[in-house]
Design a protein that fits this description.
Elements (H helix, E strand, L loop, with lengths): L1 H26 L4 H8 L3 H17 L15 H20 L7 H25 L10 H4 L1 H17 L9 H4 L1 H30 L2 H4 L4
């Protein structure tokens, strides 16, 4: 079951990320370099690509308990927090902004709904929750912080902001910084929730024990 879930997440992620790039290129008039830069400016794409790589690496491991990535305490929890944030922000702020059709709708649901749910299920069953520590919380926030800094600095030079709620040109710096602070606080709450719930689950192994 564990290997099947890893393979499913990796394949869904690969299909969704690659297809999304193809769809973007087909709809764009920019150069390939511009398309690549814009494509990897989206937190959704970066995070789903990260998830895809990590679960692919996990799926080819002969011993999942000694895997380079998920054997490191807190790594799977961090990945789960990031992809959960992708799904949460989309459902709360972005789902009503546009109505994708056809293949775009399928890709959209994979990136923002199906993959996040599958990763949370994997985390609940297979994370070594007894190894999660509160001290791991600060480094879990490094990735979203670096992303926000990168996208705001890049936006200053390119005038491209991947999400409307961090568009300085439209909203101004004061509003964008408020939104950025809210995003970081949301990450913090999610991290506290996953770590805290993980510790609770670790105390009840008879209910939450996963397969190897």
């Amino acid at each position: 079951m564990r290997r099947f879930l890893c393979n499913t997440i990796a394949l869904f992620g690969l299909f969704a990320v690659v297809t999304q790039f193809i769809l973007m290129v087909l709809a764009s008039e920019g150069s390939m370099v511009q398309n690549l830069l814009r494509f990897f400016s989206f937190f959704t794409i970066l995070t789903n690509a990260l998830v895809t790589f990590c679960f692919w690496r996990e799926s080819i491991s002969n011993n999942p308990n000694s895997n380079f990535f998920f054997a490191r305490p807190g790594w799977l929890t961090a990945i789960t927090i990031y992809i959960t944030m992708v799904g949460f922000v989309y459902q709360v702020t972005l789902r009503g902004v546009w109505e994708p059709q056809g293949l775009q709708m399928v890709v959209d649901e994979l990136l923002h709904s199906i993959i996040p749910i599958l990763v949370v299920i994997y985390w609940a069953r297979y994370e070594r929750k007894d190894k999660i520590r509160w001290s791991q919380l600060p480094w879990m926030l490094i990735y979203p912080l670096l992303y926000l800094i990168y996208i705001l600095v890049r936006g200053e030079f390119s005038d491209f902001y991947p999400y409307y709620f961090i568009d300085v040109n439209r909203l101004g710096w004061a509003k964008v910084l408020q939104h950025a602070l809210l995003l970081i606080l949301t990450f913090l709450v999610l991290a506290l929730g996953f770590i805290g719930f993980g510790k609770l689950m670790a105390k009840k192994p008879m209910y939450f024990k996963g397969e190897v």
